[in-house]
């Protein structure tokens, strides 16, 4: 509790495998706000976590819609002292069109960072889930600057994000690189309030989304990447939850504006395993 006796509030967007694992890891003794677009599934997860003893407040949210995000911010602010948001909401190439990937993964992340910055306080932390795909998507410096700093309301209008120029797989890589860049840029505004912002880039994680990708056209390539990695295994939601727990803790108070690659050594393996 803070000096005013308000309970800490943790927000988790997205109720996929990583979101639920993070909610369980961070929720004990705190007020937990769960946000997702799928209302029925959201209510089911909230009921399950309440049964485990968590204080849960579900909030149906479309992260690509500014008014919906603002309502989520207002809910979090009304419930206590905003401590952290773990932004896991996102869509993948097997789930969504290029338009939806841009709306949710690019614009949604920017909206979350812009709007939650308004209630950030000393000790508040935002963790945005990006992807190792962002480390595999080189972009020109001028485009990186635009993705990092263009206001959220204007991002979808960037020519580089035009669906005519991107298939869903390419859009996903650009989106996740944009998430990493956005966190770097947002760290200054958050720091002015005493807050921090970090992105996590998971590798191949055994979530419903990850399993769908493994079953899709890129499945064989992904299995080859796992085999070439230093750990030689698929990641678990708990691997990501553990990283989030560390990053919001006082032990990570000097870490902001950067990305943590949690991929079991996949990127390193791709770079060096054939040498």
Description of the molecule:
The protein has 275 residues and is α/β, with parallel strands linked by helices. The chain has a single domain, classed as Rossmann fold (3-Layer(aba) Sandwich), CATH 3.40.50. The chain is 48% helix and 15% strand. It contains 11 helices and 7 strands. Strands 3-2-1-4-5-6-7 form a 7-stranded parallel β-sheet, with helices on both faces. Helix 1 links the parallel strand 1 and strand 2. Helix 3 runs parallel beside helix 4 and helix 5 (141-149) crosses helix 7. The chain is globular. The model has no long low-confidence stretch (mean pLDDT 94).
User: What sort of overall outline do the alpha carbons produce when their principal axes are compared?
Assistant: globular
Q: Reading side by side through the largest sheet, how are the strands ordered?
A: 3-2-1-4-5-6-7
Summarize the helix and strand pattern as letters: EHEHEHEHEHHHEHHHEH
In the CATH scheme, what's the topology name? Rossmann fold
Strand composition percent: 15-25%
Mean pLDDT figure: 94
**Sheet bearing the most strands, described?**
7 strands, parallel
Class computed from helices, strands and strand pairing: alpha/beta
Domains, number? 1
CATH superfamily: NAD(P)-binding Rossmann-like Domain
Number of strands: 7
CATH class: Alpha Beta
Number of helices: 11
Radius of gyration: 18 Å
Instruction: Pick out the low-confidence regions.
Output: none
Give the proportion of residues in helices. 40-55%
Q: What is the second-level CATH architecture?
A: 3-Layer(aba) Sandwich
The span between the termini is: 52 Å
